[in-house]
């Protein structure tokens, strides 16, 4: 199964890369807000993935960002983000990927993420480790904030969250860490925690498809993932993915977090 999903993620990524090369302005559309965009390529890539998954796994459920729920009623659900990092994709930037995760009764158990521009294939299966292009990955051992490089995202600002948005946490965290990054793909941010090249990632507003594959890829490399209360209700109550060594320290920044459930 994992081999099939790895190959599918690569094929979908190559399709997306070809689409990016010829993407025109009239193929870019807005969704819920003017800042939330989708391209014709997102839809085409998702259609391709969904068609292939239905053919290969006719008994499984499917949930895709662009097409919603389809397939069978099942405890096993493929969760797809056809292009994670669409804002950058649409501007012909390189940091985006295809993400396909398998969720069993709410738990991410298998995933593949392919970033075509750098030809990076990340994948994991529960209990079997996490890999980048065939090489086993492990989280970093950085345990002090000053040496850490952390990453975040601004999905909440894109959704026009006025209260309890990420600006408060950024202003708390940025002065204390070694460096703060924003790359624009939640799935790849999780992969980089898994790879040990970044040490912690947090974000306030994510959807299950943003992290379905990144979740298992990060955890199989030793990452710790919780919501902002230290529990497992993520991404609904915040998303914090760290190398483990920094988890408790990072969690403290969110001690006054309020789950406003917009
Ligand atoms: C977005 C990216 C981004 C994150 C946003 C997501 P999309 O996904 O993962 O890094 O900050 O919250 O919505 O829209 O490019 O699939
Ligand atoms: Ca996404
Ligand atoms: Ca997307």
Describe this structure in words.
The protein is of the alpha+beta class and 262 residues long. The protein has two domains: 2-136, Fructose-1,6-Bisphosphatase, Chain A, domain 1; 145-252, D-Maltodextrin-Binding Protein, domain 2 (3-Layer(aba) Sandwich), CATH 3.40.190.80. Helices cover 32% and strands 26% of the residues. The strands form three sheets. It has an eight-stranded mixed β-sheet, with helices on both faces. Strand 9 (130-132) and strand 10 form a beta hairpin. Helix 6 packs parallel to helix 7. The longest helix is centred in the N-terminal third of the chain and has 20 residues, at 2-21.
Q: How are the SSEs placed, and which strands pair?
A:
Elements: H1 2-21, E1 28-30, E2 37-39, H2 40-56, E3 61-64, E4 68-71, E5 76-84, H3 86-90, E6 97-104, E7 107-115, E8 120-125, E9 130-132, E10 135-136, E11 149-152, H4 155-158, H5 166-173, E12 179-181, H6 186-195, E13 200-203, H7 208-220, E14 224-226, E15 239-242, H8 247-252
Helix pairs in contact: 1-2, 6-7
The protein binds D-MYO-inositol-1-phosphate (IPD) and calcium ion (2 copies).
